[in-house]
Amino acid sequence: MPVEEFVAGWISGALGLVLGHPFDTVKVRLQTQTTYRGIIDCMVKTYRHESLLGFFKGMSFPIASIAMVNSVLFGVYSNTLLALTATSHQERRAQPPSYIHVFTAGCTGGFVQVYCLAPFDLIKVRLQNQTEPRARPPGSPPPRYRGPVHCAVSIFQEEGPRGLFRGAWALTLRDTPTLGIYFVTYEWLCRQSTRDGQDPSPATVLVAGGFAGIASWAVATPLDVIKSRLQMAGLKRRAYRGVLDCMVSSARQEGLGVFFRGLTINSARAFPVNAVTFLSYEYLLRSWG
Ligand SMILES: C[N+](C)(C)CCCC[C@H](N)C(=O)O
């Protein structure tokens, strides 16, 4: 099982995450809080109340964890393709896999990475939703969680070990098909602009990676909203009875538009993050090729 894809996935995931975290913080707040009138209102209030640091809340943890999740995603994807087509990453330019194989490998990677992602994503969402400024006015209550480790311990103590996997089923439904779409979109766009047998140019990789991110997030956004709400439910004691109950009650209370909250910011974030992720992944593997 080639290891370099896992290492390249780790590094490229960390690079993409740092670039995209501020967008992600705005998205999570729009999805789970009703105090913001939109993206700009959320950004202005966050900056005024918490300074630039407010956009990077909850990032220390994902740097290591989401990078690891990306490592699992790309490593499982590439090794599933190796199992399906008996071709390595380098050989696939000369012997491109079918889109069915690419979709299958992407779904497999998407399914497996969920069970690494779930606890880290839960902690990230909980920390991102803490809107207290770092320099708190005297007498104001401290944030519930002091940091990612305290958040993890608190969830474990208050909600039990299964509490750390709150939202995992919604994540599975969100990520499995959409990561198949992610890799198919990337491969299809690369092949449209690259001669047979050639490596795609840096510009092609950037554009294909960016649009792969947008395509997958556009399809994933409705379940992304449900996932974030299920993850926050444990805190607010507003227990949903599951994905379907959360979907129905959210639609009843806020209309179908609720399922597309965060789509614009998701797409704005997805292009640069995934352009950088795929470019660094491709060029690390080529340099090690
Ligand atoms: C499957 N889903 C659409 C949720 C994510 C697909 C892109 C994942 C990428 N690491 C990013 O952070 O954008």
From TrEMBL:
> Entry's Gene3D superfamilies?
Mitochondrial carrier domain
Q: What is this protein called?
A: Solute carrier family 25 member 45
Q: Which residues cross the membrane?
A: 55-78, 98-118
Q: Which family does the UniProt entry place this protein in?
A: Belongs to the mitochondrial carrier (TC 2.A.29) family.
Q: Which residues form the signal peptide?
A: none
Q: Where in the cell is it found?
A: Mitochondrion inner membrane
What topology does the record note for this protein and the membrane?
Answer: Multi-pass membrane protein
- Gene name as annotated: SLC25A45
Which Pfam families does the entry mention? Mito_carr (PF00153)
**Predominant cellular place of this UniProt entry's protein:** mitochondrion
